[in-house]
Specification:
The protein is α/β, with parallel strands linked by helices. The protein has 13 helices and seven strands. A seven-stranded mixed β-sheet has the order 3-2-1-4-5-7-6. Strand 1, helix 7 and strand 2 form a beta-alpha-beta unit.
């Protein structure tokens, strides 16, 4: 979770990407991670050009363009979330939010919207400590291991959650770590917990050895060594068929190149990660 946050911090040293991500969003995120164990130390380390150079070299070797991708992905999900609320969603549920602060910002600006973040007990506890005084009253942090509980049951038992309310679900950077069966189960659980017309914003990865990915072989080995191999992969061409089997219809599929065209059209030189795309879907 912190790796993504520090990657965004590094990418936002580029003035354009900083504008794309947003000054307020960056300040909120930095405030949060500075309160974590060793967070302030790492933020200060990035002021050292040698440290930044090493971090960028690691990125080029393991996952070229990933930090710019994080920024573009976050902006797309933020825009899709605000669009969903403008379309009438009154409830937001974020699965695997990590140390992202987008839901905090959304809940602050829309006190009429109920928001929930669900993550592992360890992550939620660390975030709750770091975000002391930052959590709006309409945002609830929920600690749960989704491998041990039924998602639909968990949601319907949450105090304040309304299964009849138009709901936005966000699954960012999460589903690729699950098996295809567990992804299908999660999608069905979300569908069961909300009415038709609910919105889903999610990310998915295409096959790493396919034409839509530039993930090098060294990263695959590195992820296995970390014990975090990518498991579920779905080509963009078949994602709608997969979603349709589990109660959802894709409304938009956007890869990083399209995000760059939308948010940074004057910077085609930005190195881009090709290996994850964003989907906006609606409950059937």
């Amino acid at each position: 979770a912190l790796t993504v946050a520090f990657g965004i911090h590094l990418a936002c040293r580029d003035h354009l990407l900083r504008q794309v991500f947003g000054e307020d969003a960056l300040a909120r995120q930095n405030r949060l991670i500075a309160r974590t164990k060793d967070g302030q130390k790492r933020l200060q380390a990035f002021e050292n050009p040698v440290h930044r150079g090493f971090a960028r070299l690691k990125e080029r070797l393991l996952l070229p363009g990933i930090t710019a991708h994080y920024v573009l992905r976050k902006r797309k999900i933020r825009d899709a979330s605000h669009a969903a609320i403008a379309d009438g969603m009154t409830q937001v549920v974020v699965l695997g939010a990590g140390f992202d602060t987008a839901t905090i910002g959304l809940a602050e600006t829309r006190p009429d919207v109920r928001a929930f973040e669900i993550d592992t007990p360890a992550t939620i506890e660390a975030k709750r400590r770091a975000a002391l005084g930052m959590i709006p009253t309409n945002l609830t942090l929920i600690a749960a291991d989704l491998s041990e509980v039924e998602l639909a049951d968990l949601l319907c038992q949450l105090p304040g959650f309304d299964s009849k309310a138009p709901t936005l679900f966000v699954c960012e950077g999460l589903l690729m770590y699950l098996s295809s069966e567990d992804v299908a189960k999660s999608l069905r659980g979300l569908r069961e917990a909300a009415p038709a017309g609910a919105r889903l914003v999610m990310t998915a990865v295409p096959p790493m050895r396919g034409p839509d990915s530039n993930v090098p072989a060294i990263l695959r080995l590195y992820l296995r060594w970390l014990g975090e191999p990518l498991v579920w992969m779905e080509p963009k061409a078949t994602i709608n068929a997969f979603l349709s089997m589990h109660g959802w219809q894709a409304r938009e599929v956007m890869d990083t190149r399209r995000m760059q065209t939308r948010y940074a059209p004057d910077r085609p030189d930005i190195g881009l990660h090709r290996g994850e795309y964003c989907v906006v879907a609606e409950a059937l």
